[in-house]
Design brief:
Layout: H1 3-6, E1 8-11, H2 30-43, E2 47-49, H3 57-64, E3 72-76, H4 86-104, E4 109-114, H5 117-121, H6 125-137, E5 141-147, H7 151-160, E6 165-169, H8 176-179, H9 182-188, E7 192-196, H10 219-232, H11 236-245, E8 250-255, H12 260-279, H13 290-293
Parallel strand pairs: 1-2, 1-8, 2-3, 3-4, 4-5, 5-6, 6-7, 7-8
Length: about 300
């Protein structure tokens, strides 16, 4: 397995939802998923990142896993927002974790993340973290951690616990976690960093003239980057992956695909991206536009 391929993890949102503001193909079919997982195994991609809140993604992956055994699995907690007290919160976590294992058709997984940092920084955070540690101590999961959106969440988490894994957003235009030194803090604490949103739900790959109206402010920068990659004779996808690969603090890049063709393009772009990362500096493309770059702040229908 090449080093660039080893850094990839398949995102599972499209396996259970019609996910992504630029998604035109809808949810991945069972047949396509089997082909994708088999192709991932053959190309050397060995990890899938999913979540209990990604529709039926866990069950779909579980049904297809026989076609691509040996994949490392990471999933995320069910919603704990309705917890009525400490014991209820822990019970929801326990029940959700058991359901995830059942849906995935496995007895253990490689990673389990809290889907919302607020679950760990809130009133029942210590009890929930202890419950997740119990999963790890019992051998049901190798690493535990949390998914975050910004540096403030990272600071609040590190004040309380040291996760094994933190998943965070990072891409060509959204480099705020490098600029505010959050990446360095996590790396120095020994945390394994997984980056999502390398394509910003496909926005950075698509035609900048066809952006949704609320993202029009990104158009000029995206167009300029597309032109720069064309001048280099490289694909836009390779350039976007190169930007993330350039960060030594990032261990994995979570990227979604909806077909075997997209899988092959991802693997090829990772190889090309590694070469670009060694020769070009992508730090100058960053923008200070959180309202545009944070999908959590987008209109609800497109998150």
């Amino acid at each position: 397995m090449s080093l660039p391929i080893a850094k990839l993890a398949l995102g599972g949102a499209q396996f259970g939802l019609e996910y992504g503001v630029t998604n035109r193909s809808g949810q991945v079919s069972p047949a396509a998923l089997k082909a994708i997982l088999a192709g991932a195994r053959n190309r050397g991609i060995d990890m899938i990142d999913t979540a209990s809140q990604y529709g039926n993604s866990e069950a779909a992956i579980g049904a297809a896993m026989g076609e691509a055994g040996g994949m490392k699995l990471i999933t995320k907690s069910a919603s704990l927002a309705m917890a009525g007290g400490e014991h209820h919160a822990v019970q929801l976590l326990n029940d959700g974790f058991a359901a995830s294992l059942s849906n995935l058709g496995v007895s253990r997984i490689d990673g389990f993340l809290f889907h919302r940092a607020s679950d760990l920084t809130g009133q029942f955070g210590p009890q929930l973290w202890n419950a997740a540690r119990a999963f790890k101590e019992a051998g049901f999961v190798s690493k535990i951690g949390v998914s975050v959106y910004d540096g403030e969440e990272i600071s609040r988490i590190l004040e309380r616990v040291t996760p094994d894994i933190v998943q965070l957003p990072y891409n060509l235009l959204d480099q705020r976690l490098r600029l505010n030194e959050s990446l360095s803090r996590l790396h120095d604490a020994g945390v394994e960093v997984h980056a999502r949103s390398a394509y910003l739900q496909g926005v950075l790959l698509g035609d900048p003239k066809s952006l949704p109206a609320f993202l029009a402010g990104l158009g000029d920068q995206i167009a300029a980057f597309h032109e720069a990659m064309q001048e280099l004779g490289e694909t836009v996808q390779a350039g976007l992956l190169a930007c993330v690969m350039q960060r030594p603090e990032i261990a994995r890049i979570v990227a979604g695909v909806t077909s075997i063709g997209e899988l092959d393009a991802l693997a090829d772009a990772a190889e090309a991206g590694a070469r670009l990362a060694a020769t070009h500096d992508f730090s100058g493309w960053a923008m200070d536009a959180p309202d545009l770059l944070n999908p959590a702040l987008w209109p609800p229908r497109v998150r």
